């Protein structure tokens, strides 16, 4: 089957889109990936990456770039189209009118996600969220299938489209685990990997350093969401205690995690976060290090149930510091938590299981 994945937002080597889904599908299908990053065309891992170019500004991307994606999609004349961005829903509907098989991959619960947008006021958030929820109800039943990144998003779309499945962002087995790393050789550091933003708890992480009783350090791997936030955080009194490394590739991330005694994921309690399954929890587990995570019920079910870390109030820097100190002062317990997390990933939270679900779903949809 000839398959085209489409994104106007994500980078070409996005973990979910390229490294996981496209890479799994190319073993049995001819796979293309349309992107809009301005980096040109290339073939990577037997996947044809086709670039429609980038334009400045959100409105240009939403109206002009999406049209370019549509034109390129028609040129490819594939059997099945799989798109990853809500702004491509109109493109998906146009492709359906052309008689194509179309799958929408919903990475986020967008109506809930809108409430986390800092540049919108409360009234605007309510209006946009309500309108988008109505648009989802109109459009998504028309698609041949819906793929979601979490069970909670799956349950929402199942009410609109019976052909809905969750393909979770579980880690690729062995990708981030350094089996040669020795716990007693680790640096006394905790780490955060991912995009750095207010709603992902960067201010509380920095503030927690004031409350530490151990000499544990904190390292960040990722880019700030905007310049204003970066300037604000770097003006905090504890910033000099932070080692910010910027973006790391997957191999660099593996090495970075192997030196850390814990991984931090402290998202704020927003509607889109509480029911989310952040990739980072499972990546820390797959690296064999304990997790310090927000104390949301779903996250506690993963972390506490598998005895692989600690859950804290993400808005309480003192509580965050206590968790860091506890793992720093109890290396045997921290190492055991790391082993438990790795075991849970090997048994149930891994991409091997999810890619089998993906392939079976494609076979069902493509009949």
TrEMBL record:
InterPro entries tied to this protein: Glyco_trans_1 (IPR001296), Glyco_trans_4-like_N (IPR028098)
Domain Glycosyl transferase family stretches: 181-341
GO MF annotations, alphabetized: glycosyltransferase activity
Domain Glycosyltransferase subfamily 4-like N-terminal, first and last residues per copy: 22-159
Keyword Transcription belongs to the record: no
Keyword Protein biosynthesis among record annotations: no
Keywords: Transferase
Lineage: superkingdom: Bacteria
Stored Pfam families: Glyco_transf_4 (PF13439), Glycos_transf_1 (PF00534)
Family annotation (PANTHER family): GLYCOSYLTRANSFERASE WBBK-RELATED
Name this polypeptide is given: Glycosyltransferase
The species this protein was found in: Photorhabdus luminescens subsp. sonorensis
Phylogenetic lineage: Bacteria, Pseudomonadati, Pseudomonadota, Gammaproteobacteria, Enterobacterales
């Amino acid at each position: 089957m000839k398959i085209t994945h489409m994104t106007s937002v994500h980078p070409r080597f996005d973990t979910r889109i390229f490294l996981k889904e496209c890479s799994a599908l190319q073993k049995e299908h001819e796979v293309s990936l349309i992107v809009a990053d301005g980096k040109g065309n290339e073939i990577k891992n037997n996947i044809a990456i086709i670039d429609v170019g980038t334009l400045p500004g959100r409105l240009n991307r939403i109206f002009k770039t999406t049209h370019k994606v549509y034109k390129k999609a028609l040129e490819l004349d594939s059997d099945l189209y799989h798109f990853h961005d809500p702004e491509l829903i109109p493109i998906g509907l146009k492709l359906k009118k052309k008689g194509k098989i179309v799958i929408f991959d919903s990475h986020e619960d967008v109506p809930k996600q809108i409430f986390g947008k800092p540049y919108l006021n409360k009234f605007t958030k309510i209006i946009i969220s309500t309108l988008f929820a109505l648009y989802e109800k109109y459009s998504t039943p028309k698609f041949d299938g819906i793929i979601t990144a979490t069970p909670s998003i799956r349950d929402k779309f199942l009410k609109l489209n019976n052909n809905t499945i969750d393909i979770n962002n579980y880690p690729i087995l062995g990708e981030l685990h350094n089996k040669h790393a020795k716990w007693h050789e680790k640096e006394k550091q905790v780490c955060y990997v991912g995009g750095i933003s207010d709603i992902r708890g960067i201010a509380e992480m920095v503030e927690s350093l004031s409350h530490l009783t151990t000499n544990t350090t904190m390292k960040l791997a990722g880019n700030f969401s905007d310049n204003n936030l970066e300037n604000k955080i770097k003006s905090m009194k504890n910033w000099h205690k932070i080692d910010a490394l910027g973006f790391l590739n997957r191999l660099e991330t593996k090495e970075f995690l192997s030196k850390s005694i814990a991984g931090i994921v402290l998202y704020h309690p927003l509607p889109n976060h509480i029911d989310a399954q952040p990739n980072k929890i499972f990546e820390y587990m797959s690296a064999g290090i304990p997790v310090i995570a927000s104390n949301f019920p779903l996250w506690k079910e993963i972390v506490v149930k598998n005895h692989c870390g600690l859950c804290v109030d993400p808005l309480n820097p003192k509580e965050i510091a206590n968790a860091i100190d506890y793992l720093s002062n109890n290396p045997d317990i921290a190492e055991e938590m790391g082993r438990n997390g790795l075991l849970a990933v090997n048994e149930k939270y891994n991409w091997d299981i999810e890619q089998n679900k993906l392939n079976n779903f494609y076979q069902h949809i493509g009949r």
